[in-house]
Write a structure and sequence with these properties.
With about 325 residues, the protein is α/β, with parallel strands linked by helices. It has 2 domains: about 80 residues, Arc Repressor Mutant, subunit A; about 210 residues, D-Maltodextrin-Binding Protein, domain 2 (3-Layer(aba) Sandwich). It is about 40% helix and about 20% strand. The strands form 2 sheets. Strands 3, 4, 5, 6, 7, 8, 9, 10 and 11 form a 9-stranded mixed sheet that branches. A two-stranded antiparallel ribbon has the order 1-2. Strand 7, helix 8 and strand 8 form a beta-alpha-beta unit. Helix 2 packs across helix 5. InterPro entries: LysR-type_TF_proteobact-type, LysR_HTH_N, LysR_subst-bd, WH-like_DNA-bd_sf, WH_DNA-bd_sf. Pfam families: HTH_1 (PF00126), LysR_substrate (PF03466). This is LysR family transcriptional regulator.
């Protein structure tokens, strides 16, 4: 009888994750929260392991240890959906992110203003702007702040700050909801471009009538991540699009081949002498970039300094953004 009672006690303790020799309430290892945060953001143990620089078994073990210490399930696991947060996991995520931000802020304050500003920042941006503007600007920024390192994500989609894919995001649509601090970074212009070789072979374009029968390059409409990208049909209704791509850089490369016309951002195309803007006074497409981050991160010194640096760089390069200059100014 005594043996059976001990077995039942062990099973009960194991099911709640609170077994202990002394019966005292267990305390979670707060370092396990780092592993929890990465799994919550990536929804994959393998992806979390890659970001943390450990093997996937370590991540699984640390998450299990946290669940056992808290006596609750933090993730629902499935082969298709990956690791989805349970209601308890969602509650913990809010507090864990606040703790993460508080720790980062405390480290900055303890380091003191006299110390070199340091840390890591991940920036998500639209593909062309991240490649042709943000990346060279950051390279210059690091001359002033060499102890800050970056991940740059120039992708043809929206970057999710809710999943912490990035600390700072630059996008073509202002976020409609969420705990974010957001500001307009700049306006930018897009123009119709061709190569001199195209114009020599297929004829000049001096009026809208000259666009009749021309071949164009554009986005795959049903795969465009924003309606802000659907401007070609407004410029040339019913035009003949012969090449479509979800990537504006791919469209740019296609335009360089001299077989079709493309609407491209001036900050990218105006820097390339192989492209000529067409109908400059008639084709006017203006869009905006927005910069935003989690409201807790906005108080971090490295985020504040970078935010201001990017705004200054955008103001300094307004002529390039508007298609009135052909060179990016870094100083």
């Amino acid at each position: 009888m005594a043996h059976g009672g001990a077995a039942r006690t062990t099973r009960a303790a194991r099911s709640t994750g609170m077994a202990g020799a002394s019966g005292a309430e267990p305390r979670p290892d707060w370092d396990d929260l780092r592993y929890f945060l990465e799994v919550a953001r990536t929804q994959r143990v393998s992806a979390a392991a890659l970001r943390l620089g450990v093997d996937h078994t370590t991540v699984s073990r640390r998450v299990r240890a946290l669940e056992q210490a808290l006596g609750t399930l933090l993730f629902d696991k499935s082969r298709n959906a990956g690791f989805a947060l349970t209601p308890e996991g969602q509650q913990l995520l809010v507090h864990a992110e606040q703790m993460e931000t508080a720790l980062q802020s405390a480290c900055e304050q303890v380091a003191g203003l006299g110390q070199t500003l340091s840390g890591h920042v991940r920036i998500g941006s639209t593909e062309a702007f991240g490649t042709y503007f943000v990346t060279p600007v950051l390279s210059r920024f690091q001359r002033e702040y060499p102890a800050i390192d970056f991940d740059v994500l120039p992708v043809p989609r929206f970057v999710s700050l809710s999943k912490r894919e990035a600390d700072l995001a630059i996008t073509i649509e202002r976020p409609q909801r969420g705990p974010y601090v957001c500001s307009k970074l700049c306006d930018y212009r897009l123009q119709l471009y061709a190569t001199p070789g195209y114009l020599a072979q297929y004829g000049d374009v001096s009026t809208f009538a000259d666009l009749t029968g021309r071949r164009f390059i554009s986005y795959v409409d049903e795969l465009s991540f924003s309606n802000e990208l659907r401007y070609l049909e407004d410029i040339v209704p019913g035009c003949n699009v012969v090449l479509r791509s979800t990537s504006v850089i791919a469209q740019y490369q296609a335009a360089l081949q001299g077989e079709a016309l493309a609407v491209l951002p001036c900050f990218m195309a105006a820097q390339d002498p192989r492209l000529v803007p067409l109908l400059v006074d008639d084709v006017v497409v203006t869009r905006s970039f927005w910069i935003y981050c989690h409201e807790e991160l906005r108080t971090l010194k490295r985020i504040t300094v970078l935010w201001d640096y990017l705004r200054d760089a955008a103001q300094r390069n307004d002529a390039l953004l508007q298609g009135k200059a052909g060179q990016l100014l870094l100083t």
